[in-house]
Specification:
Order of helices and strands: EEEHHHEHEHEHEHEHEHEHEHEHE
Keywords: Magnesium, Metal-binding
CATH class of the largest domain: Alpha Beta
InterPro entries: Enolase-like_C_sf, Enolase-like_N, Enolase_C-like, Mandelate_racemase_C, RHMD-like
CATH topology of the largest domain: TIM Barrel
Helix content: 25-40%
Number of domains: 2
CATH architecture of the largest domain: Alpha-Beta Barrel
Organism: Spiribacter curvatus
Protein name: Mandelate racemase/muconate lactonizing enzyme C-terminal domain-containing protein
Cofactor: Mg(2+)
Strand content: 15-25%
Number of strands: 13
């Protein structure tokens, strides 16, 4: 048994209306998805999705002909590739899916078997008015979801605070609220400087007043001293790490007590293999592991399996902000969009691997050259 083929395809779904992502100064008129398929010598295929993985084609020979079940070996090679090329971690996800299909085990069982379901929180992505955000919060509560994340970054902090105040008034204690400050990284064309500690603390004080659970990415991802200080000086939980790339960076975050909530995404940072080990470190340190996941449903389900099966958590991120961001748009590569049940949980089931089926017709219609 060996890896016979690796195929990478790129897809682009037109967005009408556009998606004005809160963290992007340019409204998005297309949603891109990269799909990787790994086929073994018996014809079984594992799937993954994530970043475009620029440059990975130059290294595929390092996997062809190898044992598909050698996940630890493959993860080390991918770590090396990640230094030389773009984020390659969708391939790690596809290898996990293939290994599960070979062994007849669901990915959550491969990750440790702790549980087969996991709660979700609704993650908003659009800057809306206080009234509309309040209506959205009521809708989210009615859907059975226990928590909601609000994006800051409007023209003024006063506008952001007005939204938070209106949402809290609308739902009371029925929803746990989190705030994403989006200061950890920028899009290539966005040259705004990140907040400094003093501004982050000013915002934290207002968030405390509204009983916010966590404050996400309040500082640049490399401001270790600022995160340590902010964590000490506020009663809020400090969250981050969604785009942190390397193992040693996470070790620094842990050693310097920078975060309460660690959010690495398996398709962006380290893959499922290494994140399983990191999740255990995070929990052993008395912190929370709950992945970021703002790609499509393949990455969402990969993070759900990884977390539910290894260390568990109260909830993980569910991108949901209709009408611009619906499950159908988010999960266009899949035959069935990923949805939580009436209690706000993703039920992962016992199907081998990730248990997902691609929508080949839609993928054919949306395929583009890289």
């Amino acid at each position: 048994m060996s890896i016979r083929d690796i195929r990478i395809s790129h897809h682009r779904l037109p967005l009408d209306p556009p998606f004005p992502a809160a963290w992007d100064t340019r409204p998005r008129r297309f949603f891109g998805a990269t799909v990787v398929r790994v086929e073994d010598s018996e014809g079984r295929v594992g799937i993954g999705s994530g970043d475009p993985m620029h440059g990975l084609h130059d290294y595929l020979e390092l996997f062809l002909g190898r044992d598909p079940l050698a996940l630890a070996r493959h993860a080390e090679v991918l770590s090396n590739i990640g230094f030389h090329a773009g984020r390659p971690w969708a391939l790690d996800v596809a290898l996990w899916d293939l290994a599960g299909r070979i062994d007849g085990r669901a990915a959550w069982q491969m990750a440790g078997g702790r549980g087969s379901s996991i709660g979700c929180y609704a993650s908003s992505g659009v800057h809306r008015s206080p009234e509309v955000m309040a209506d959205m919060a009521r809708h989210i509560h009615a859907q059975g979801l226990p928590a909601m994340k609000i994006r800051f970054g409007r023209a003024t902090l006063a506008e952001d605070f007005a939204v938070l105040e209106r949402v809290r008034a609308a739902v009371g204690d029925n929803l746990t609220l989190m705030v994403d400050c989006n200061q950890g990284w920028r899009m290539p064309w966005d040259t705004q400087p990140p907040w400094v500690y003093e501004k982050a603390l000013e915002v934290a004080r207002e968030l405390e007043r509204h009983d916010v659970y966590w404050m996400e990415e309040p500082l640049h991802r490399g401001d270790y001293a600022g995160m340590t200080r902010l964590r000490r000086d506020t009663r809020l939980a400090i969250a981050g790490g969604e785009m942190t790339r390397e193992w040693h960076e996470f070790q620094t975050l842990l050693e310097r007590d920078c975060l309460d909530v660690y959010q690495p995404d398996a398709v962006c940072s380290l893959g499922m293999t290494h994140l399983r080990a990191l999740a255990e470190q995070v929990v052993d340190a008395g912190c929370i592991f709950t992945p970021h996941t703002w790609g499509n449903g393949i990455g969402l389900i990969a993070n759900a399996h990884l977390t539910a099966g290894s260390v568990g958590t109260d909830f993980i991120e569910l991108p949901y902000d209709p009408p611009e961001w619906t499950p159908e748009r988010r999960d266009f590569p899949l035959s069935t969009p990923v949805r939580p049940d009436e209690n706000g949980h993703l039920q992962l089931g016992d199907a081998p691997g990730l248990g997902l089926v691609l929508d080949e017709e839609t993928l054919a219609q949306t395929r583009v050259m890289p």
